[in-house]
Design a protein that fits this description.
Blueprint (H helix, E strand, L loop, with lengths): L1 H23 L12 E5 L17 H11 L3 E5 L10 H6 L4 E6 L5 H16 L5 E8 L9 H12 L6 E6 H6 L1 H4 L5 E5 L8 H18 L5 E6 L15 H18 L3 E3 L9 H4 L29 H19 L8 H26 L5 H32 L20 E8 L4 H12 L6 E8 L4 H14 L3 E6 L5 H12 L4 E6 L5 E2 L3 H5 L8 E5 L11 H22 L11 E4 H6 L10 H11 L3 E4 L5 E2 L6 H26 L9 H36 L9 H26 L3 H13 L1 H13 L17 H7 L1 H18 L7 H28 L19 H11 L1
Helix pairs in contact: 1-11, 1-12, 8-9, 11-12, 12-13, 13-22, 13-23, 14-15, 18-23, 18-24, 20-21, 21-22, 21-25, 22-25, 22-27, 23-24, 23-28, 24-28, 26-28, 27-28
């Protein structure tokens, strides 16, 4: 039954995926392209040509382009006579093409004089196929010349030739400057509704209405349409989307209207112009009916399909989705139908989006720069896919498991069958009263056979460690105190010292931090798990008892709870928990086999757990509170603690990468390797996100300084950070409400605290990659709260980055094209990237405002276990 579901669900979702592709690509009937159109705007630049660099096509190239257009068009319109372009009239005559001859007018008068001289020379040749002359193209729109100056040029040319003379401007320029009309023989208007943000379905009617508006204003002047067209690629301009399908639809609809109304027009344009990327941005490159290889970009007669090759792309997205889903389904026997359906939906959505983004990106002309960026984006995209799949997998397993496969074996065991336990309490410079509370909790343990070893390492002040020594003596022979100074190896060194002093009778070693107060049932409930000889670790979660003190600690409490009530529970299903160094128990024999704790590693607890897994041992986790400690008092300490954890994770990965990736044979299962790599993947994502942030800021600065040359990043790429952020936040809020049993306020507080650590984790990732040693930072407890200024200083890096992102967003919004969708999406990306840094500042300030009540967040109950009471009753009956 389970196997059939594993096959049926992917098939159903695959059919939905193909159906979605089909719905988006249904054929649309459009008017057919005329057998011969009125005219093309004609710039015969090849892919490597660039008139701004004085690189013009050869005469042979021009002749080849004209030959291609022969029989398809009545006339061509040129823009300049520079370089070889003065040969166009004579070459066009050989192919039966008329020419509207253009002379370029720019902002340099000497260049204009040279251009007019070239015009005089060409006109003197008397080419009969030249039917009209254009002096300037949008020169007034660009503010290259004043109206009076352009009129002077027009009058000079009109004296040179009997041909009708005009200039070309958008429709609104003619309406604004009626004096210009008096000096032309006809009006040449440009109708480019894309640039005005007009949606496709309204574009033809809009163009016609503007034509009629100019005609009504100047009824005695002939009007020709000098440019009319739509780009096949580029930026979305408000309601106007640039795409091959929209280019096809607009042109075929307009040509049908133009033929019916007998307009004189020139389609903008014959060939894509790669050189325009520098002057008009990406969109300016894609107005051609033919691409730079002189191939038609769309079909002239068949129904229009948005993506002609959608069947191949749909098939590819299904294949990728099936491969990803096969990996996720390998170990999903306990996942419900809803969980499997959720994974299938997410997987096919990710694969479809990936295929679409790659397709969309590769539709642009690939230069060395775009190719290099594309490769980097591809690598980053693979990382995003892996991250999203890991997040989705945890989401599904946290909510839709039919049953847990590895529940903790809580059971009653008679006293005479319980093993001897050695409890180790490492301490450094801890307040004596704090440590005494911990020892009182251990003294009250409901367990017959145990000892407690307190190892104070490197505390210099006797007034700190001597009262603890004396208190251990009062508690009896079970409690032994050691003060060792000097002692190398930090916490691992202290634990290895304790291991050497452990009673030979001890079969289990338990470790707690010096601030933990354990419940009496801790050992009695967890030690029986070692009845299984393969179990090397029994782990209870970290929990805390000071969340009631203020809003900051209540916020931290909510953030911690997610890992211990979500991540550790799902990891336990595949025997892949992270051993953390408090509330943990280890079989003494296996600890000796591993040669103790690794003193090279700042997170010696997680490293030992991984080594035990590599040796083939089991670990068990119970998500129930058996002891509670103290949380950091300030954001600085909170951040320092997380830096140490993330830094240690990197060092572990670097030391054990061969084992984790299977290049060195160990007993690690595929599920264990998956959880250790995928579990740390979000932290590495924070590191790579920091690189993205610096690149985003640099790009935004370039957009502000060079608005004409630098456009926003490709829109489909820019959407990825927004989607990823939204997915992670949705997952966090949903799982907190469903699995952590948190209120909405607590869920938001946890998310805020987690975001506040993003920059710290990113720095730890790079720190762990480039440095091999980090001093051990003990997490301070009961420290004096910082002032507001100190809190801002603690988050100064984050505050500066937040300010930089918001300033960049403001600067980008000042661009003239801020109304365009891709600019607004990029602004949204900048604002979203600022949120984690703003969260750091807010959380740091919250830690300074200790008077803020924890009630703002709300209390969280202990992580309880339903069977605990039953076990207690059973133990009582046995006694």
């Amino acid at each position: 039954m389970n196997r059939s579901i594993n096959i049926l669900i992917p098939i159903l979702i695959a059919l939905l995926t193909v159906a979605a592709w089909w719905l988006l690509n249904r054929p649309n009937e459009e008017p057919t392209w005329p057998s011969r159109i009125q005219g093309f705007s004609f710039s015969p630049m090849q892919a490597d040509d660039d008139p701004s660099q004085d690189r013009f096509p050869s005469v042979e190239d021009i002749e080849s382009d004209l030959a291609l257009l022969e029989g398809k068009v009545h006339a061509v319109r040129t823009y300049t006579l520079e370089g070889t372009l003065g040969a166009v009239p004579s070459l066009a005559a050989e192919h039966g093409l008329n020419v509207t001859l253009g002379a370029w007018i720019g902002d340099r008068r000497e260049d204009n004089e040279q251009e007019l001289e070239r015009l005089r020379e060409v006109l003197a040749k008397g080419n009969r196929n030249v039917v009209r002359v254009m002096v300037g193209n949008e020169a007034i729109l660009r503010d290259d010349v004043e109206v009076a100056e352009l009129i002077e040029y027009l009058e000079r040319v009109r004296k040179l030739t009997w041909l009708p003379v005009s200039t070309a401007e958008p429709w609104h320029v003619w309406l604004k400057y009626p004096e210009l009309v008096e000096h032309v023989d006809f009006i040449t208007i440009h109708l480019l509704p894309y640039w005005e943000g007009v949606p496709l379905d309204q574009a033809v009617d809009y163009a016609v209405s503007r034509y009629d508006q100019v005609k009504e204003a100047y009824p005695n002047k002939p009007i020709i349409i000098g440019e009319v067209g739509w780009p096949s690629n580029g930026r979305r301009n408000r309601g106007a989307e640039a795409s091959p399908a929209n280019q096809t639809r607009f042109l075929r609809r307009f040509l049908a209207k133009a033929e019916a109304e007998h307009y004189v027009y020139y389609v903008m344009e014959a060939f894509d112009q790669l050189w325009k990327l520098k002057t008009e941005g990406a969109t300016g490159t894609y107005w051609g009916v033919y691409n730079s290889n002189r191939e038609p970009k769309f079909d002239f007669t068949k129904p229009v399909v948005r993506i002609p090759h959608w069947r191949e792309l749909a098939g590819l997205s299904v294949v990728i989705g099936v491969l990803l889903l096969a990996f996720l389904y390998r170990d999903s026997s306990t996942l419900s139908k809803r969980g499997k359906s959720f994974l299938a939906l997410i997987t096919y959505a990710i694969s479809t989006a990936a295929v679409w983004i790659v397709y969309d990106y590769t539709r642009q002309y690939m230069t060395p720069a775009t190719t290099a960026v594309g490769l980097l984006l591809l690598i980053g995209g693979v990382g995003v896919i892996v991250l999203l799949m890991a997040e989705a997998h945890e989401w599904a397993e946290s909510v839709w498991l039919r049953q847990w496969r590895r529940p903790f074996p809580l059971r009653a065991v008679p006293d005479d069958q319980l093993p001897f336990v050695s409890v180790h309490v490492p301490a450094y410079n801890e307040p004596p009263e704090l440590l005494k509370e911990t020892l009182d909790g251990l003294a009250a343990l409901d367990y017959p056979y145990f000892e407690v070893l307190v190892i104070d390492n490197n505390t210099k002040d006797p007034a700190v460690w001597q009262p603890v020594r004396d208190y251990c003596a009062q508690l009896g022979e079970r409690f032994r105190f050691f003060h060792v100074d000097p002692l190398a190896g930090y916490k691992a060194g202290a634990l290895n010292f304790a291991l050497r002093e452990t009673s030979p009778m001890a079969e289990v070693v338990a470790v707690i931090d010096a601030d933990y107060i354990v419940k009496p049932a801790w050992l009695r409930h967890l030690v029986p798990a070692f009845a299984d000889p393969e179990v090397a670790i029994a782990q209870a979660p970290q929990d805390y008892r000071d969340a009631h003190q203020n809003a900051f600690k209540a916020m931290c409490m909510a953030e911690y709870r997610g890992f211990f009530h979500l991540g550790m529970v799902t990891r336990n299903e595949r025997n892949a928990i992270i051993q953390h160094g408090t509330m943990t128990m280890i079989r003494r024999k296996t600890l000796d086999e591993m040669q103790g704790w690794a003193e090279w590693c700042i997170t010696e607890d997680a490293e030992l757990g991984l080594r035990l897994f590599e040796a083939g041992y089991k670990a068990l986790y119970i998500p129930c509170t058996y002891g509670r400690g103290l949380m950091p008092d300030t954001f600085a300490d909170f951040r320092k603690q997380r830096y140490r954890w993330a830094y240690g994770a990197v060092r572990i990965l670097l030391r054990h990468w061969r084992e984790l990736f299977g290049t060195r044979k160990t007993a690690l299962s595929a599920g264990q390797r998956y959880h250790f790599v995928a579990g740390w993947l979000p932290w590495f994502a924070d590191g790579f996100n920091l690189l993205f942030n610096f690149a985003a800021l640099a790009w935004s600065v370039a957009m502000v300084l060079y608005p004409l040359q630098v456009t926003p990043p490709y829109m489909s790429i820019a959407l990825i950070p927004l989607v990823l952020f939204g997915f992670k936040m949705s997952k966090s809020l949903f799982l907190y409400r469903r699995r952590v049993i948190a209120t909405f306020r607590q869920s938001l507080a946890a998310g805020l605290a987690g975001l506040a650590l993003s920059h710290t984790i990113a720095r730890a990732m790079f720190g762990g990659l480039v440095t091999g040693k980090l001093g051990f930072f003990r997490t301070p407890k009961m420290a004096e709260a910082p002032a507001v200024i100190r809190a801002l200083g603690d988050a100064r890096e984050e505050a500066l980055l937040a300010f930089a992102f918001l300033l960049a967003a403001f600067g980008v919004m000042l661009r003239d094209d801020a109304f365009m969708l891709d600019v607004r999406i990029w602004v949204a990306v900048l604002v979203v990237q600022a949120i984690p840094y703003l969260a750091s500042v807010l959380v740091s300030l919250t830690s300074a405002w200790q008077h803020l009540s924890a009630d703002l967040i709300g209390p969280m109950s202990d992580m309880g276990c339903e069977t605990t009471a039953a076990v207690d009753q059973s133990v009582s009956r046995e006694a």
